[in-house]
Amino acid sequence: MTKFLLDLLCDPVDKSKLLLEDAVYDQDGDIDAGILRSSTGAAYPVINGIPRFVHMENQLKAVKSFGDQWNFFNFVDFHDHWIAHTVKNTFGNTAVFAGKVIVDCGGGSGAQTTWMLESGAKHVIMLELSHSVDGIAKENIKKKGFKNVDIIQCSIDHPPLLPGTITGIVICHNVIQHTESVERTAKNLFGIVAPGGEFVFNCYRKYNVGLFRKFRFNLIFMPLRSILKKMPFAVNLTYARLMGALRLVPLIGVGLEKLYFLSSGDIPNKKGWAYIRQKYKATVLNTFDSFGSHSFQHYKSDKEVMELLKQLQPDSTKIKNFDQYFSVPPPIGCALRVFN
Fold it and tell me: Could you write out the DSSP letters of every residue in 276-334?
């Protein structure tokens, strides 16, 4: 944990400043261990350089599948997807990250964190509740050798960062729907954004207008997910691999995707065998993610998201990507940019 982060940390419950006790420093002068204590006496440990804000065992159980998912799948092979979808359709290009402090909410495998650092970010703070913080995320970040980065193990619906301190970007891409309350998480994350900074988020869309869409969402996808989310990791992985293989079969694969038995998505910058291989990998990952055993997976209607935006930022001129986000279909990976 860097000293830079220490100045930004607070108690996630009462937002009081934290004091560091019994600190142990590594050879670079960063904090490897210690206790972070609030004015109320609440104590949060720093273990292996990561401050831990995990209160209950059931918090970890709720996201265990995500830790398993990212430790297994990683995400580093999907840089082209990130550039062509998330970056292009939300920001335009990676220049937006240069020189900024960024909070990567629900950082998973740490891949996006490293890509933003490679794009010139001043400092990236990755928030992640699952055990991937001690696995693939830490490994990916360590491999790159960056020093201007921190990992915090916490729930993103109660970020342990002082209100109004992030002047850059707080990004929560394809994550907020997996928290207990989308609205609460959005409000708390927007609360740490300083004037001039921005909160970037998207949420799974309740896109079930029309008889066919209602049929496939309510009578295929949701019942199937209600079964698979109760299954162990191996069962979900087997299902995802089967769908990955079937997606490559002409007509059958397209039909299964249109019926919501699987999810694959667009494959940028690949042709021939490289395209086929990446299509399979993307289908396995996206299908596993769609039907995984995580506790929360919300779908919000356009009306619900618009109402949330009004609560976050009544000034519509400070909201970017509004028309693109609510278009049908929206650009892949497009997220809303809400400025403070």
Answer: HHHHHHHHHHHHHHHH---S----B-HHHHHHHHHHH-S-GGGEESHHHHTSSSPPTT-
Distance CA 247, CA 255 (A): 9
Domain that holds residue 13: 3-53
- pLDDT confidence bin for 73, thresholds 50/70/90: confident
- Whole-angstrom Cα Rg for the chain: 20
Q: pLDDT digits over 75-122, tens only?
A: 888 999 999 999 999 999 999 999 999 999 999 999 999 999 999 999
Buried b (16+ CB within 10 A) or exposed e, 158-196: bbbbbeebbebbbbbbbbbbbbeebbebbebbbbbbbee
At position 292, the amino acid (one-letter code) is G
Task: Single out the residue of 85, 80, 116 nearest to residue 99, CA to CA.
Answer: 116
Q: Are residues 158 and 82 in the same domain?
A: yes
Residues in the chain: 340
Tokens of 53: 């804000």
Rounded CA separation 27/225 (Å):
47
Burial (Cβ within 10 Å: 0-12, 13-18, ≥19) of residue 84: middle
Q: Indicate which CATH number applies to the domain containing 114.
A: 3.40.50.150
Residue 235: pLDDT band (50, 70, 90) is very high
CA distance 141 to 231: 31
Query: Model's pTM, two decimal places?
Result: 0.94
